[in-house]
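Exercise 7.
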Amino acid sequence: MSAPAWKGLFDWSMQHQSSEGAPPKQVTPEEQKWFQEAMAQYTVDHVGRMKQIKATLDQPDETADAVHKKQDMLEELLDIVDNIDYARDLHTIGGLPTLLSLLQGSHASIRWRAAEVVATCVQNNPPVQQWFMEGGAMPKLLHLLHDEDASCRTKALLALSCLIRLNPLALEVFRQKRGIPQLIQAADDQDIKVQRKALHLLRHVVHAHPPDAMVACQLGALHQAAFHLASSDTDTWQAALALVQQLAEDSQSAQILQQDKQLQHQLQTLQAKLQGLTGEDKEATEEELAVCKQLMHSLYNTSSQSGSMPQTEPSRRQASATAAANGANRLQLPQAQSPGHSNSSLPAAPLLLGPPSQS
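Solution. The predicted structure, written as tokens, is:
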């Protein structure tokens, strides 16, 4: 909107306001028409617009133009539902089935955009979280974790994170649907963004339900965390360190950590690396260095000043072998599937989870 238009509307309103005690001024039909047109020009009916977007998203995407149109509509919808009230209105107009169906669409560019819209809708929004759960969002997002497209896997993790945070019911469903082993598998993804988000979400799940720390260790979370401590990506090794710290808070899983030589090596190596930093880099990692020292002391009774490193580093293959020896292969993890395939073909597997959440 241009400044002159706003000024004209302001001047008009000032001219037609009544002085104290004076009778209200009469508005002519021409002035009323002008006011209505001005307001209509500079206001947007977001609910009406969402209905139009839904109608477009319900159409087939058999052509490249149709796919591009849906991409644009999803990006516009993402901006609208960023407002918590409009996220609720999306349910009111029947938009949830449309959106959730796009998670299983034939085009990756539409699948990941739909997942991003889901994440925005449910974030810190309990009523909408419940509606999406009732609509079947959880199994669709878990299925998207095994998508062939890395962006789809990343956005699936984002949406799952937003769905289960501050939502005990959704967290319980996530656990019962073997969400923990699927997160551990995602931490082994080739895409670094998927790895990082999986590590973050795994830490949150264990924090929200501490008995799952032991389960996560048995399924290989410890070995994934230890491996990623050596990552060249700062955000990734920080996520791995936070996960190790969370696992160490449980007395049973801490015993497993104490026996893991690879973890001891990686923590010692990381501590020495951080102690060697200078200037701003050193200041930026002071908290992480303190965590390393605390873990080395509590798990291995090592002096906080120690910075010596073993001469050899276990390979990732050795780490996988150790994970298998510790029982990480007790639960067969679901394999990556192309979109549209059902999960019903997955073999039944024992449910290795701690006791239900106390909520």
